[in-house]
Amino acid sequence: MGSAGRRRDSTASLSLREAPTRVTDPEPDPLVLQVPAQALLEGDTVTLRCRCQQDNHLTWVTKLSLSSLQLHHSGRYGCEGLVGSWQSRSAAVTVTAHGVPLSGVSLSVQPPGGQVALGDCLVLSCTVATGTGPLSFSWHREGSGAPLGTDPPPGPAPHWGQ
Fold this sequence. Notes:
By secondary structure, the protein is mainly β. It contains no helices and 14 strands. It has 2 domains: 31-98, Immunoglobulins (Immunoglobulin-like, Sandwich), CATH 2.60.40.10; 103-156, no CATH class. InterPro entries: Ig-like_dom, Ig-like_dom_sf, Ig-like_fold, Ig_sub.
């Protein structure tokens, strides 16, 4: 008989040296870093909590407090610790510090009422009651397009007069 009529069989043997393991979804990270859900403003105190959970039970919590929060505190944070005998690290979370919006802007004048004689000095002061971040001021006379001065330091305006 030719090879076209032969039946060909193939046999392979496989031996297991270890018990088979079932593939499942990975365990959730045991460490979780929690940050407050509300907006974080400059000057606030914020507490970051690192929680360790094993077998659906909370086993420990540690805290980090950032007092007088500043814009440069913004960034990615994480925590790490020993869980059992394993070093573990939380997923990183983003902390964003926001500036406090400016409010309570007022203008005052010396002498009160702004009445001066020719040659006398008039002092204008611009103040901001609350807010953070860089401030810039510009001084304008009503009806004039050009500013009298720009970006002076906070406080009294330049003196005009003697």
